[in-house]
Amino acid sequence: MKKAGILNRHLSGALAELGHGDGVLVCDAGMPIPAGPRVVDLAFRAGVPSFAEVLDGLLAELVVEGATAAREIRAANPSATSLLEDEFPDLELVSHEKLKELSAGARLVVRTGEAQPYANVLLKCGVFF
Question: What is the pLDDT of residue 121?
């Protein structure tokens, strides 16, 4: 049995299957989930687990070379904006509609219980060497 890191067996297994260039959408409870990508739904109740908690856990285990979010996040969700801009100085911003289009190409979707608007980010996996 694992004693640290991500303990959810479905999420841990899905992360182990990712490779360089794969996309991972970390999304709030309201984001439409595209058909195609593997989905690990962590949502329990509104706000649980939070976008910040899930993102923090994922970033502890993944190599990320890029991130894309909806530009609408700036006006609608200052705390998520600050979190993403602190983690990703080169954060790419696109329209929310474009983010939904891009998310269809993700390999994995991790749905959180977040109930604040536009708390979504598409991560691009990097390589550790």
Answer: 98
Q: Of the residues 7, 13, 20, 56, which is catalytic?
A: 20
Note the pTM of the prediction, 2 decimals.
0.96
Residues of the chain with pLDDT under 70: none
47: left (phi over 0), alpha (psi -120 to 50) or beta: left
* Per-residue pLDDT at 2: 87
Q: Which long-range contacts (CB under 8 A, 24 or more apart) does 79-88 make?
A: 79/52, 79/116, 80/51, 80/52, 80/116, 80/118, 80/119, 83/51, 83/52, 83/55, 84/121, 87/55, 87/59, 88/64, 88/121
In this prediction, residue 36 carries a pLDDT of: 93
The answer to whether residue 20 is catalytic is: yes
Task: Give the C-alpha separation, 104 to 113, whole Å.
Answer: 20
